[in-house]
Write a structure and sequence with these properties.
The chain has 338 residues and is mostly helical. It has one domain (7-300): Rhodopsin 7-helix transmembrane proteins (Rhopdopsin 7-helix transmembrane proteins), CATH 1.20.1070. The chain contains eleven helices and four strands, in the order ββααααααβααβααα. The strands form two sheets. Strands 1-2 form a two-stranded antiparallel ribbon. The N and C termini lie far apart (62 Å). One of its GO terms (molecular function) is trace-amine receptor activity. One of its GO terms (cellular component) is plasma membrane.
C-alpha cells in the first residue's frame, strides 16, 4: 500500500508507460485546490472590474487607461490559465494532448502581451514626464489603440511560430502518458529569452530610470525655489504626471519581480523539452502578478475604488452613478490626486 510520499502512476492501467505523481494527503490536496481556485476566481473577478470600469466610464478613456485596460484583459485571461494549473498540482495531465497545446499557447501569448503592454506603459510615462509639452500630440487614443492591437497580434503570430512543433505534433514530446511537455528548439528559446525578457526588461529599466532622474531633479528645483514663472504651468503638469508615473511604477516593479525568476530558471536549466509541472512555482509566481495588479489599483487609484463601489451597488445601471463618477474623476484631476 502506497504512502503519501511514494510515487504512484497517473494511469495505473498503462503500467510503466504512465507518468508518476506524488501522492499528497487528502487535506493538503483539498487545501491546494481551494487556494488555486480562489486565486483563479479573484484574478478573473478583480480584472473584470477594471475592464468594466475603464470601458464603461468615458472620462477614463485616456491613452494611459487604455494601456491599463489591455493589461487587465491579459490578466483576466491568466485567471483561466490558473484553472489548467490546478490539473498539474500532482504532476499529472488528464485533459489530453490538444488541451495541453492550447494551455501552452495561451500561457505564452497572454503573458507576452502583458510584457508588451508594460513596455508601452513605460513609454507612455516617459513621454508624459520627460516631454510633457508634446505629450498630448505624441500620445493619442488612436495611437495607443494601434500599439495595443499590434502588441496582441505580434504576440499571437510570434508564439504561433515559436510553438509550431508543438501545434503540429500534440503530445509528441511527452516522455510518458499523463505529461504535458513543451518543446522549444534551442534557437527559439534564445529568441524568446531576448525578445520576451532581455529587451523589454532593458527598455523598462532605462525609461523608468530616466523618469526617476527627472522626478528627483524637479523635486530639488522646487525645494530650492529655482522656478521660472514661464515654466510654472508645465511643472504643474509634470507634478500630476509624476504621481501617475509613481503609481504605475509600482505596477512595473512588481511585474518585473514576478517575471524575473521565471527567466532565471530558464537560463539555469537550459532549453529543450520542459515538463510544465517542474516549473509550477516560478510560473505560478509570474501568473500571480495578474492578481496583484488590480489590488494595486485599489490602493493607488481613487477613481477605481469609486467605480468598483458603483459596480457592486449596481448604481452603474443608472445615469446617476455615471455623473457622480464623472464629477469625482474631474475633481481628482483638478487637484492632481488621480
Amino acid at each position: 500500500m502506497s504512502t503519501p510520499d511514494e510515487a504512484e502512476l497517473c494511469y495505473p492501467h498503462l503500467g510503466n508507460s504512465s507518468c508518476r505523481r506524488i501522492v499528497r494527503s487528502h487535506s493538503v490536496s483539498v487545501l491546494l485546490h481551494i487556494i488555486l481556485s480562489s486565486i483563479s476566481v479573484l484574478t478573473v473577478t478583480l480584472n473584470l472590474l477594471v475592464i468594466i470600469s475603464i470601458s464603461h466610464f468615458r472620462k477614463l478613456h485616456t491613452p494611459t487607461n487604455f494601456l491599463l485596460l489591455s493589461l487587465a484583459v491579459s490578466d483576466f485571461s491568466v485567471g483561466f490559465v490558473w484553472v489548467f494549473m490546478i490539473f498539474l498540482i500532482n504532476g499529472c495531465w488528464f485533459l489530453g494532448a490538444g488541451w495541453c497545446v492550447f494551455n501552452a499557447f495561451l500561457s505564452y501569448v497572454v503573458p507576452s502581451a502583458s510584457i508588451g503592454t508594460v513596455v508601452l506603459i513605460s513609454v507612455d510615462r516617459y513621454v508624459a514626464v520627460c516631454d510633457p509639452m508634446h505629450y498630448q500630440t505624441k500620445v493619442t487614443k488612436n495611437r495607443a489603440n494601434i500599439c495595443i492591437v499590434l502588441c496582441w497580434v505580434g504576440s499571437t503570430v510570434y508564439h504561433t511560430v515559436i510553438l509550431k512543433d508543438n501545434i503540429e505534433n500534440p503530445g509528441g514530446f511527452d516522455s510518458c502518458a499523463g505529461e504535458c511537455a513543451l518543446y522549444l528548439p534551442p534557437f527559439a528559446g534564445v529568441i524568446d529569452l531576448i525578445f520576451s525578457f532581455i529587451i523589454p526588461f532593458s527598455i523598462i529599466v532605462v525609461l523608468y530610470v530616466r523618469v526617476f532622474i527627472v522626478a528627483v531633479s524637479q523635486a530639488q528645483a522646487m525645494r530650492s525655489h529655482v522656478t521660472v514663472v514661464t515654466l510654472q504651468s508645465s511643472q504643474k503638469v509634470n507634478r500630476s504626471e509624476l504621481k501617475a508615473a509613481r503609481a504605475l511604477g509600482v505596477v512595473v516593479v512588481v511585474f518585473l519581480m514576478c517575471l524575473t525568476p521565471l527567466y532565471i530558471v530558464s537560463l539555469t536549466t537550459g532549453f529543450g523539452v520542459k515538463s510544465t509541472s517542474s516549473y509550477i512555482f516560478v510560473i505560478g509566481l509570474f501568473y500571480f502578478n495578474s492578481l496583484l495588479n488590480p489590488v494595486i489599483y485599489v490602493f493607488l487609484y481613487p477613481w477605481f475604488r469609486k467605480c468598483v463601489k458603483c459596480v457592486f451597488s449596481l448604481q452603474i445601471l443608472n445615469g446617476c452613478c455615471v455623473s457622480n463618477v464623472f464629477n469625482y474623476i474631474l475633481h481628482c484631476f483638478t487637484f492632481n490626486r488621480v
